[in-house]
Write a structure and sequence with these properties.
- Two copies of one chain form a homodimer.
- Chain A is of the alpha/beta class.
- Chain A folds into four domains: 2-210, NAD(P)-binding Rossmann-like Domain (Rossmann fold), CATH 3.40.50.720; 297-460, Succinyl-CoA synthetase domains (Rossmann fold), CATH 3.40.50; 503-579, ATP-grasp fold, A domain (Dna Ligase, domain 1), CATH 3.30.1490.20; 585-695, D-amino Acid Aminotransferase, Chain A, domain 1, CATH 3.30.470.20.
- In chain A, 40% of the residues lie in helices and 21% in strands.
- In chain A, the strands form five sheets. In chain A, strands 3-4-2-1-5-6-7 form a seven-stranded mixed beta sheet, with helices on both faces. In chain A, strands 9-8-11-10-12-13-14 form a seven-stranded mixed beta sheet, with helices on both faces.
- The longest helix of chain A has 23 residues, at 438-460.
- Chain A is flat and about 100 Å long.
- The first copy, chain A, starts with a helix and ends with a strand.
- At the A-B interface, α5, α8, α11, β16 and α16 of A face α5, α8, α11, β16 and α16 of B.
């Protein structure tokens, strides 16, 4: 198993430092210092062609001279010397290396060539490599610190952190000290010439000290493999990811920084959703959430009680709950009455429970107990501002056992700094995360609720593969000539996967158009038929409400004339005729293929406003029925299918069927590149695809 | 001037403390301690019926015995004793009081009666009162500290803070110590029996030490007066407001806490926009923004350079710029070339400028100088992670003079805690705000840019009052009978303010309908005419595409039958007929009246999707032309008026005219309660109101 092999990166028996230096200003000194003075229990061997001694041990002139045990090399030599260093490591039979040095792909074409050379040597000698251009890794529990960062290392903790950026790692390690959290394992991945976040995730997830994993990613080139790995891990361990390059400016910056190609952001969001990854948007969220995941139980729902000794922060917290789609729990009458009995008359025994400024630590405990005993309450936010009357640490002391006992998440909000410092430390020592403001606490709590929803949904539903007439589909697909297709092709394809269409007929002459119109009945829609005109309405290529065969004849001539005027080079096959459907709600559905994550299904408001209104939502194929339902709920187009004002309810099931089937078409037939049904007319019973565009 | 009189609250010559206590566990002791030991330079007189001595001075048995000078009383007596205390203060001729004690309106009906009594005594004796139920006020520069909070008081600074919540004040004072900012003046307003935030804002704004003002508000009952005051102040001093009760949960919590009625959130947003107030959504934003406003110049635009020594944080910063609608500045070729000459080859001389980890303090200075000299750069974010090579404080030392010299805002981002502590302090001492992550820095910078936009817009445009035919309008308005009106009323009103309508005619019989249809021409729309049916389409009360007089006759009978079935109690006047307009883009516009802020103009996507899509925007009347243009830009309905795909451009000017005129109708005729034009059909030239609903 690859997992077991890479575990040695975090738990090596012996380490050789190539480039160890007795010059205290050099990184090669700092790495030796951190490994030797940091308490790493294995062997540390120093290597430098100059020889000498450091920390009371010899410096070997070559790694070939290093005695056993040694199964990891840390390399901090000039880039030009790296290939020879890797060859020596290979010759000495060391299976793992961290190439800390910079000067490779990140510096341009010459560096990229050098990186390729290093990688090729690693492949030859079966060395698995972290880096180059990284700060190495840490395991705080062993402990192991291969970085050159100034001590102290981060506090031992239960959050693992993998980062594409070394500087961000260094900053976060320093920041974490003040925030009161620590790390289990930490890896700076650098250029990922060999090992990427996807390779290391399983090792990290297997670490018994790791209870949540935070990732900082600049790109996800092997999207499908990452997704698969993440899906397995999130069944047990929560994953929080800050994926940067979300915006056009960010993508520009990331491209110049890493040279990596950006995937579409909609695909990243959809992939994270499918894998149960929580996507942080800010640096603070990444760790606010990871801390909650590492230490708190998941709530059974989104109903939250707020316990406070001051009204104002209670209102801030209530707003924050709403912002995060959490609810103020409606307390049981019994709870309200018990709270009323205990609290002074001016207090509020409704949620938020405002005990007033006079509240003692015992009041906090009594009220928290009552709230936790209430079945309506699924989580509690406890607000603790600096008190002029009681030492707030006494509140912590009395609450900690209650918080540790309960299966419901309870989050203390400590508003202040110096006056609540002792309280902050007390909660920290007991591994209870605290937040300085209600907004950050509510944001973390909401992610716990999201994860609970995700785990429930995963239990409830497994993807169901619909039965397609494979033979028929293959015949249709093989009939395609060139890039686009005859107008009936899309309809035949949709019908083969069970999506109803309005019959479309091609007429090559005005006379044929008249004949077909009589067969189809009125009213009719006529559209220009051309493989070169995709957006027909842009060239005036659509005519509605044709109610006689003579109108159809006239329409033929009008459409062809217009098309010839506007797009003289377009091949024109005639016009298509289709029964006009007045009834029903209009929606758009379809799929595209993302370069990194594969087929991406889309659903939303159709028509020409689709780009402007952005009432549209995405999910990765294949879809479960629940995922299809979620797509409906995420858009106004989907929500109003249930009926709205004088608009009658439309057939949601037909839309869900269509989405699921379309998602399987995308999954099983990679030769279909893109498909868009716009509009699908959703009737009281059934749904009809009126127009479909397919790219093969 | 009221302003000058209330100034004495912050700069009294002498203070009497009613309820001063030698019991160190009591708040009456803490207030005396803070005033006497905190260095307040005026006289402090202690009062308690028990007499005695404290801090080497006598405790007077009555405030009547207190010698001159005394122009402020701080009262911390039991609520029941407050009326007599206020009478004594009045008798002694003290013009200002702070009633710290709780036990009033916040505790229920009995407390409210007591509060009324206190207020009435204040009115009788011309005492201006802060409180009750508050923690008092501070001026850190005098210094003056009337609170009972444990020392030390907040650091002197240039941010003023007014708060409806005492607990939030106390928490923020403590929090500010760690964040490295101080306050000029700070007021806890409590129940605001007499003085509110609106009364105190002018005094605070006149304080020479105050450079920005932060407010925490739970309600704004005197909305129009607040707005007027704020508009005057924001010309000179930036205002940042955290107004809670934004959400349904928050409103519920605020109502149970303060009993105040919530205004509509759209009105609050519109009012803040009109007054140039920056609305914070989180507690951290409130002070992140206030700090930037207090210390930094405003940028001349939204083009920002990012200077970093690490790629990752540069990408985070670029994303954050986009999120905040700021741009990555495109550097002058000259700047790029100078950067390239100075930096190592692997560095990035494009924005974000990545100097690489080897960057020295001198490199930071050289690059910052080049960026500041570039006309394309209007602001700079400087990212400073902990460096393993250079002490980061050296970067601060070399950058501070540059940042102080330039007219462009430069924000250092200090990522870390202990390793950058000294650097943090150095910037702080020089009044340069720093942020721990790019996201928070970008958010603050964007508010500076917003304020610059606001000040420019205020210079550019003044509201222009259109000329209405007042006589005609008055005649129409006086003709209204009852709550609703005959169908032509709205049209006449719109035409009187220059908005074109499609003539609507009322037919009381099928025969009359036929006759009118011939006069109007075809196609026609028929609608049920009833003062009791507002949403006509909900009862099937609209028929389209009537193309002959016989169709109109049949429509009459059908509409009346339907209406009688669905709403038997409705009075039915017949049907209305109107020429059907096929062309044009559909928008909705109108106004409602907010209880606190007055008339609120709305614009957006019309039709029945208006509630679901929420493509709608609001602004307070009256509108300038620029504000009307902004309403268009804030919605898709407005943006696509410029033309979109095969949709031809529509007459934006006609919509702007209609919005401005409607806003003045709302401003000048308060008897019109509500008005909604849905839809306004916007043609290539002109716009026609097809349907209008008015409530008088």
């Amino acid at each position: 198993m690859i997992t077991n092999k890479l575990e040695a990166l975090f738990n090596p028996k012996g380490i050789a430092i190539l480039g160890a230096s007795s010059d205290t200003g050099k990184l090669g000194y700092a790495v030796a210092r951190n490994l030797i003075e940091g308490g790493y229990p294995g062997q540390v061997h120093l290597v430098n062609p100059k020889g000498g001694a450091l920390f009371n041990r010899p410096i070997y002139k070559s790694v070939l001279d290093v005695p056993d045990p040694v199964d990891l090399a840390v390399v901090i030599v000039p880039a030009q010397a790296a290939p020879q260093a890797m060859r020596d490591i290979g010759t000495r039979g060391i299976p793992h290396a961290i190439l800390t040095s910079g000067g490779f792909r990140e510096t341009g074409d010459k560096g990229a060539v050098l990186e390729e050379e290093v990688l090729s040597i690693c492949r030859d000698f079966h060395i698995r490599l972290i880096g180059p251009n990284c700060i190495g890794l840490l395991d705080t529990h062993l402990p192991l610190d291969t970085t050159f960062l100034p001590p102290p290392p981060p506090e031992p903790g239960n959050i693992a952190f993998l980062s594409h950026s070394g500087a961000f790692c260094a900053a976060i390690i320093d920041w974490s000290r003040q925030q009161g959290f620590g790390f289990s394992r930490l890896v700076s991945l650098g250029n990922q010439a060999d090992l990427s976040e996807t390779d290391l995730l399983p090792v990290i997830a297997n670490d018994p000290h790791t209870r949540s994993i935070a990732l900082y990613l600049e790109s996800i080139p092997h999207g499908e493999r990452f997704l698969e790995t993440a899906r397995l891990i999130t069944q047990k361990t929560p994953l929080v990811v800050l994926k940067v390059g979300r915006t056009s400016s960010g993508q520009k910056a990331a491209a110049s920084h890493t040279g990596a190609l950006a995937g579409t952001e909609a695909a990243v969001d959809a992939a994270f959703k499918k894998a149960g990854i929580q996507r942080a948007i800010t640096s603070e969220e990444l760790f606010d959430w990871a801390r909650a995941f590492a230490c708190l139980p998941l709530p059974s729902g989104r109903n939250v009680a707020i316990l406070t000794n001051a009204g104002g922060p209670g209102v801030i917290a209530a707003d924050a709950l709403s912002d995060q789609k959490l609810c103020l729990a409606s307390l049981d009458l019994q709870t309200i009455s018990a709270l009323r009995d205990h609290l002074p008359p001016a207090a509020s025994s409704q949620n938020p429970i405002d005990m007033l400024a006079s509240a003692s630590p015992e009041d906090y405990a009594t009220c928290l107990k009552l709230l936790l005993a209430d079945q309506q309450v699924q989580a509690v936010l406890v607000i603790i501002p600096p008190s002029p009357v009681f030492p707030t640490v006494d509140i912590a002391k009395i609450l900690v056992p209650l918080i540790k006992q309960t299966q419901k998440p309870v989050i203390p909000i400590l508003m202040g700094s110096t006056l609540i410092q002792q309280t902050f430390q007390y909660f920290n020592q007991h591994e209870i995360p605290t937040y300085s403001f209600p907004e950050r606490a509510a944001s973390a709590l909401a992610r716990l609720a999201d994860r609970a929803d995700f785990l429930r949904a995963r239990e409830d539903s497994s993807p169901f593969e619909p039965h397609f007439e494979e033979q028929k589909l293959s015949t249709i697909l093989s009939s395609i000539q060139g890039k686009t297709f005859d107008p009936a092709f899309g309809d035949r394809l949709l019908e083969a996967i069970g999506i109803q269409t309005a019959p479309v007929r091609l007429a090559a002459t005005p006379q044929e158009a008249e004949q077909i119109s009589i067969e189809l009945g009125f009213p009719l829609v006529a559209k220009i038929a051309s493989p070169d005109i995709l957006h027909k309405s842009d060239v005036g290529g659509v005519l509605l409400n044709l109610d006689s065969s003579s109108a159809v004849h006239a329409a033929y001539n009008k459409l062809v004339t217009r098309a010839r005027e506007k797009q003289p080079a377009a091949r024109i096959n005639g016009i298509t005729l289709q029964k006009q459907i007045h009834a029903g709600q209009e929606v758009i559905l379809g799929f595209v293929r993302d370069a990194h994550f594969g087929p991406l299904v889309m659903f939303g408001s159709g028509g020409i406003d689709v780009e402007g209104l952005r009432d549209i939502s995405f999910a990765l194929a294949p879809l479960t029925r629940q995922e299809a339902k979620d797509l409906l709920q995420q858009t106004w187009a989907g929500r109003k299918l249930a009926g709205y004002r004088n608009m009658p309810p439309a057939d949601e099931t037909a839309v869900i069927d269509a989405l699921v089937n379309l998602s399987w078409l995308a999954t099983k037939y990679p030769q279909i590149n893109e498909c868009e049904i716009n509009p699908l007319k959703v009737l009281g019973k059934g749904a009809i695809a009126v127009d479909v565009r397919i790219k093969v």
